[in-house]
User: Which sequence fits this backbone?
């Protein structure tokens, strides 16, 4: 008798192994899940049988994926991108569906199959494309914004397609062939359900979440999110619609509350795990024997899918007014199949709308297209530069503009990234009259900063020619101010090839990549979390009567040891040594103004603590901190005064405040 725990252990083991291998290969884990499903499925090794239980478990992955998309659904965001989303996106989906339906009709198949296949093949992979664009720092580029807009509309287009498929399946089994009636009933159902859920949801969601949040229980909060998500999914399924629609509506309703980001963090583990199981079950659908027997068809479908989607999307992009190079790049980024294509085909297959002989080659071509997608995106740049002179000219002009600004610069600082960290750093360099040039990829940020006269230009710092144009061979130091290890490694590789002696300072989020970045050539690596810990510790030590000199020495020791003391969370070293000059170094002291104190109702100017060489850095009144107290600040009972000075001077200031 089969142990019920055995299939679960097999799924977990193969999922862990697949994710580890594909992350080591720097490929999306989703592809690992698909391949794992193919290997262990009933059509290959047969370790996991294809049962209703596994399919139901996988459905929950789709539910949580749609819930996450609902959380991201923002009406203001849609309005700002309405031309791309509702113009370009709508045209892409409709043209793709019509083309596939025409091809299916010419092959002599039912038009309903063409509609389902068209909808499935019109989708592109949000997971793969967004990950690749983020790694290549192209999310804010022209083609990046087009890609995001199209993907957003595709996500929305899934909803009506999920509603139409059951109606198509019902029409196939019906003797009346009254598809219009079936579709009208489906539309009426969705209008009724949407009105009911959205009307009540907007009125009840926020007060209900307030009530749950006031209980201050993280377990209760997560249970409530699960209840709402699965409850609305159940309601929509009860109305004859899909589970995914209810989850999407739940996400939409919660996105209108202030708990959106907390919910997103809480639900992410459930979503990712169950979505992984969904892709494993999709892989299990693939019958390699059928694929091998129909290899020619798989190849034809794969080639047609990639070529047609590239041509359609690039053509529409040109129609919407973009350059040829941008249009082709957008097409190459979206040429693959997507996650929701599998969702649509799985639903159509379960309802008997598409026969296995048609479904298997299409599934195989979709899976293969997703394996090919990362390589197409990665090598789209060389293809564009080779075939489009305008792109070469554009990049040449961009590099020339960078070189013009740095032509006379010597011993300057190159700042890679002009976000908050880069801008803060530039202010300090300006105060010290140190020349710098900043490189960034956000057009709006560059326009505003350049208009204000700041030394920032558009350029991808991960490109060799951009670094050379920015004066890499003459620079004194290079700073990577954004926390992106992949991009930082590319920059470090170029620096090591061109000028290995240059000092490079790299920012990272935590200490996990410090050794990797240093091995790649970074002179120093600044970890946000570690530096935050150092600042927290230094401020805390000042308030427990540790002198400034000792604190600075301790911080310096930790930095010199490359954060080694902080990387071991349980390792601690105390330093009891005292120097002879401890008493003359400044420190902080807090004094509470109690009833009867001499300072009550007197201004800081009247008290004149400056005559004692003591500075008032802050006054906290009723838990409100005044960062910059002035001479006109009048002290009251209960005020907490923060003083800075030497130990002896602080003692004198305390006496003056309390006794007069």
Assistant:
């Amino acid at each position: 008798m089969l142990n019920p725990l055995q299939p679960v252990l097999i799924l977990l083991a193969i999922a862990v192994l697949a994710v580890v291998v594909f992350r080591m290969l720097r490929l999306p884990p989703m592809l690992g899940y698909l391949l794992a499903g193919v290997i262990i499925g009933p059509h290959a090794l047969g370790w996991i049988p294809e049962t209703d239980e596994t399919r139901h478990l996988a459905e929950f992955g789709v539910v949580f994926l749609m819930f996450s998309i609902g959380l991201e659904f923002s009406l203001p965001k849609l309005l700002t991108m309405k031309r791309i989303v509702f113009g370009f996106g709508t045209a892409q989906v409709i043209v793709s569906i019509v083309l596939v339906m025409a091809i299916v009709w010419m092959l002599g198949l039912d038009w309903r199959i063409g509609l389902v296949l068209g909808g499935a093949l019109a989708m592109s992979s949000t997971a793969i494309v967004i990950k690749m664009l983020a790694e290549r720092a192209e999310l804010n580029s022209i083609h990046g914004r087009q890609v995001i807009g199209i993907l957003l509309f595709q996500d929305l287009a899934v909803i009506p397609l999920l509603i139409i498929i059951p109606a198509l399946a019902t029409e196939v089994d019906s003797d009346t062939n009254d598809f219009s009636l079936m579709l009208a009933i489906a539309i009426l159902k969705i209008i009724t359900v949407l009105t009911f859920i959205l009307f009540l949801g907007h009125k009840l969601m926020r007060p209900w979440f307030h009530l749950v949040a006031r209980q201050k229980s993280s377990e209760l909060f997560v249970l409530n999110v699960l209840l709402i998500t699965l409850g609305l999914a159940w309601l929509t399924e009860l109305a004859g619609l899909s589970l995914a629609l209810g989850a999407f509506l739940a996400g939409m309703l919660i996105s209108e509350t202030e708990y959106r980001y907390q919910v997103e963090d809480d639900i992410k583990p459930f979503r990712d795990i169950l979505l992984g199981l969904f892709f494993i079950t999709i892989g299990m659908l693939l019958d390699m024997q059928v694929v091998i027997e129909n290899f020619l068809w798989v190849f034809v479908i794969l080639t047609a899918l990639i070529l047609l989607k590239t041509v359609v999307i690039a053509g529409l992009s040109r129609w919407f007014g973009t350059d040829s190079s941008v249009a082709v790049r957008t097409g190459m980024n979206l040429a693959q199949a997507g996650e929701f294509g599998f969702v649509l085909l799985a639903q159509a297959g379960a309802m008997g709308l598409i026969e296995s002989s048609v479904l298997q080659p299409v599934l195989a071509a979709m899976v293969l297209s997703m394996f090919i997608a990362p390589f197409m995106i990665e090598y789209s740049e060389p293809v564009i530069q080779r075939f489009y002179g305008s792109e070469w000219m554009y990049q040449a002009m961009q590099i020339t503009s960078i070189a013009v600004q740095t032509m006379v610069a010597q011993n300057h600082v190159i700042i890679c990234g002009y976000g908050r960290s880069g801008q803060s750093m530039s202010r300090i360099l300006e105060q010290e009259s140190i020349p710098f040039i900043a490189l960034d990829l956000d057009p709006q940020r560059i326009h505003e900063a350049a208009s204000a006269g700041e030394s920032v230009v558009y350029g991808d710092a991960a490109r060799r020619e951009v670094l050379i144009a920015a004066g890499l061979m003459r620079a004194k130091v290079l700073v990577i101010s954004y926390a992106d290890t992949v991009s930082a490694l590319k920059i470090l590789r170029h620096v090591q090839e061109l000028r290995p002696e240059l000092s490079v300072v790299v920012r990272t989020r935590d200490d996990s990549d410090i050794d990797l970045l240093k091995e790649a050539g970074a002179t120093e690596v600044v970890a946000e979390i570690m530096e935050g810990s150092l600042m927290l510790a230094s401020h805390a030590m000042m308030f427990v009567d540790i002198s400034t000199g000792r604190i600075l020495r301790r911080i310096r020791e930790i930095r010199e040891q490359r954060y080694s003391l902080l990387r071991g969370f349980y390792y601690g070293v105390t330093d009891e040594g005292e120097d002879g000059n401890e008493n003359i170094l400044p420190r902080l002291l807090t004094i509470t103004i109690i009833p009867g104190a001499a300072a009550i109702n007197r201004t800081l100017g009247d008290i004149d603590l400056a005559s004692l060489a003591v500075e008032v850095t802050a006054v906290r009144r009723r838990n409100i901190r005044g960062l910059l107290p002035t001479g006109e600040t009048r002290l009251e009972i209960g005020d907490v005064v923060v003083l800075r000075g030497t130990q002896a001077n602080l003692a004198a200031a305390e006496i003056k405040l309390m006794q007069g």
Observations:
- The domain at 582-659 is CATH 3.30.70.1450 (Alpha-Beta Plaits).
- Strands lie at 413-416, 436-440, 456-458, 477-480, 503-508, 524-527, 587-592, 615-621, 624-626, 640-645.
- The radius of gyration is 31 Å.
